[in-house]
Design goal:
Oligomer: single chain
Distance between the termini: 40 Å
Strand content: under 5%
Largest sheet: none
Helix content: 55-70%
CATH class of the domain at 559-654: Mainly Alpha
CATH architecture of the domain at 559-654: Alpha Horseshoe
Structural class: mainly alpha
CATH topology of the domain at 559-654: Leucine-rich Repeat Variant
Number of strands: 0
Length: 654
């Protein structure tokens, strides 16, 4: 007998339906196949029959697969699992209680609460864990009542109350701290509760254990709880909090400093403790540890959290940040620069400027960015020095930072800067382009006469940004610059003015020098729209040569009727490349006349032209075009025939 794929009713050994076939394949040996079967079972199999598979004591693989399918079934599985709670087999009841929590459906909560009175401890524990998974607030008080039960049930209830996080559990859990066996578990649960009362219990626990080996558990939990209560003011209304700040600061300093100075230990538990330490330093205002806090920022994984707390302290942390800017470790200096920029305190400007000469590029770059945030005018000249930094990242940061300064102040400082190497001038021009000011104009005009084409191009772009200035006369000489990129920049910048004078200047250039014809035509059309068409036609008629073909192509884009006969005339040009340009332009018109002329070109003697015809025919959507495309599939040139067949396949969606 041949094997049948899961999901097929044929050949099923039980002779049943598709769902039966799925169930029978749940124990497939291949894990990938089994995964697909589980997905199908979650969607299509009878949940009651999956529950029966869970009761299978022999085939553990099948049982686990059935449990997985029930969980993935979500709300669809809940009725069957609820019915399973009345099964005479306690193990089935336990599995059903556990699975109900994993379905993440609220409908399961009342049924799980009822199980809390069950005699079987394992079933009660499974129900408790599921209620914790579901964060069932309706179960808080029933779970509290379990804190007096069997230790294993009690521990499960403590954990579940923490997972639920309801404030009503804070006081009962505080009382449960008297049980030393479950103390760590209760401490962790209190940390998950959003409640000032929970913080009070944790502050008391930290107070009592600050000098003991148990210190880390309440510290971690308190850090967790404080994330749920981020406002500092309410904390000072908690007696245990104020007592901790008043009486345990010295001991806390020793413990918290040790946690922050542990080096590069980046295990999750160590990171949690370090972040909790930083939280306490900020909220308890332990000023002697502000330096340790800044030094802890050297660890990349801790840096975002440490910076949050350092900045949250405010002005009081400035001396520690200033000290960090002088730290022997580059990573500390880098972090201190980052904090200094975010704090925006003027007292940090001078030490930040000193960091611009740091031997480490990353420190220099961060210092540059920080000064861009502070913007002290005395930093402009030192930042100009960084425009020649050996590291490109520092150069780029300096350009960006200088662009953030007040344009007047930055312009004066840059113009007073004595060095005029090309690299400095290029960077200055980029700054002036983003921060224009009238005082820059003499410098910019001088740059237009420079020997370096990049300097001339940047000067063109910077002049165009000058406010309240008619730049056309200034930039017109650049239209005849020997460098192509300078000329292109001048065309674009003049075109942005959109004045009659700028249109005349560009039209004159087009008439006498077609080297930038495409850019000129596109710019003129963008400036003046259809109003420029007669002028462009006149120029082409006066110069009907290849360099001026971009005029006709642009007019074809505009579907200008007066240009269509001129384009058709190009189909008789002796040069195949001109004929190809004409065919593409005719396709842009899309008219009946254009289509007929394109079809006629399918017999062109040049195979390159016929290939272009095949390329555009499919875009025309004309019945005759399709017929001609089919003929081109038989073309004597293999490339043309292949291009035509490919075009037909595209049209047919093959």
């Amino acid at each position: 007998m041949s094997r049948t794929e899961p999901g097929s009713a044929k050949g099923n050994p039980d002779g049943e339906d598709i769902a039966s076939a799925i169930l029978s394949a749940l124990n497939h040996r291949d894990r990938r196949v089994r995964g697909r079967v589980i997905e199908e079972a979650a969607r299509a199999a009878d949940p009651d029959r999956l529950v029966k598979a869970v009761a299978d004591q022999v085939d553990a693989v099948r049982r686990n697969a059935a449990m997985d399918a029930l969980v993935r079934g979500g709300a669809r599985s809940v009725p069957a699992l609820v019915r399973a709670l009345d099964d005479p087999d306690p193990e089935v009841v336990m599995f059903a209680a556990s699975l109900l929590g994993k379905t993440r459906t609220r409908e399961a909560m009342p049924y799980l609460v009822r199980l809390l009175d069950y005699e079987d401890v394992n079933i009660v524990q499974a129900a408790v864990e599921s209620l914790g998974h579901l964060r069932a607030t309706v179960a808080v008080m029933p779970l509290v009542s379990l804190l007096e039960r069997d230790p294993w049930v009690r521990y499960a209830a403590i954990h579940a109350l923490g997972e639920i996080g309801d404030a009503r559990a804070a006081e009962p859990l505080g009382t449960a701290l008297g049980d030393r066996d479950g103390w760590d578990l209760t401490i962790a649960a209190l940390g998950k509760i959003r409640s000032l009362r929970a913080i009070e219990h944790l502050a008391t626990a930290l107070y009592e254990s600050v000098t003991s080996s148990e210190f880390e558990a309440p510290l971690r939990a308190l850090g967790d709880a404080l994330r749920r209560q981020p406002a500092a003011e309410p904390l000072w209304g908690i007696p245990a909090w104020t007592r901790l700040a008043r009486e345990r600061t010295a001991e806390l300093r020793v413990q918290l400093a040790e946690l922050l100075e542990r080096g590069s230990r980046d295990a999750p538990e160590d990171l949690e403790l370090a972040e909790a330490a930083a939280t306490l330093i900020r909220l308890l205002r332990i000023e002697p540890l502000y330096g340790s806090l800044v030094r802890a920022g050297r660890r990349p994984v801790l840096r975002p959290a440490i910076q949050f707390h350092a900045i949250g302290i405010g002005a009081a942390v400035v001396p520690a940040v200033a000290e960090g800017l002088l730290d022997p470790q580059p990573a500390v200096r880098e972090f201190a620069c980052s904090c200094a920029g975010a704090l925006r305190d003027d007292d940090l400007a001078e030490p930040l400027i000193a960091c611009l000469a740091d031997s480490h590029a990353v420190v220099r770059e961060t210092a540059v960015r920080a000064l861009g945030q502070l913007r002290p005018i005395e930093a402009v000249a030192p930042l100009a020095e960084r425009l020649m930094d050996p590291e490109p990242a520092v150069q780029a940061a300096a350009q960006e930072a200088l662009g953030a300064f007040d344009p007047t102040a930055a312009s004066h400082a840059l113009l007073a800067y004595p060095r005029r190497e090309p690299a400095v001038m290029i960077a200055m021009l980029r700054v002036m382009r983003s921060s224009p000011h009238p005082d820059q104009l003499p410098f910019l005009v001088d740059c237009l006469r420079g020997d370096d084409p990049e300097i001339r191009r940047l000067a063109v772009e910077a002049i165009a940004e000058q406010p309240d200035l008619d730049v056309v006369d200034l930039l017109e000489p650049a239209l005849d610059d020997p460098d192509d990129e300078v000329r292109r920049a001048a065309v674009k910048m003049i075109g942005r003015r959109r004045t009659a004078r700028s249109s005349e200047v560009l039209l004159e250039l087009l008439a006498r020098s077609p080297s930038l014809a495409r850019l000129l035509v596109e710019t003129l059309v963008e400036m003046d729209g259809l109003a420029i068409v007669p002028r462009l036609l006149a120029i082409y008629i006066a110069h009907p040569t290849e360099p001026y073909l971009p005029i006709l192509v642009e007019l074809a884009h505009l579907r200008e009727p007066a240009a269509e006969p001129l384009v058709v005339g190009l189909l008789g040009d002796p040069e195949p490349e001109i004929r190809r340009i004409a065919i593409r332009a005719m396709a842009l018109f899309g008219s009946t006349v254009a289509t007929r002329h394109i079809i006629a070109s399918a017999t062109d003697p040049a195979w390159q032209v016929r290939a272009t015809v095949a390329e555009v025919l499919g875009e025309l959507g004309h019945p005759d075009a399709r017929v001609e495309l089919e003929r081109l599939c038989l073309d004597e040139h293999a490339f043309v025939a292949t291009a035509a067949r490919h075009r037909l396949e595209l049209d047919e969606g093959i």
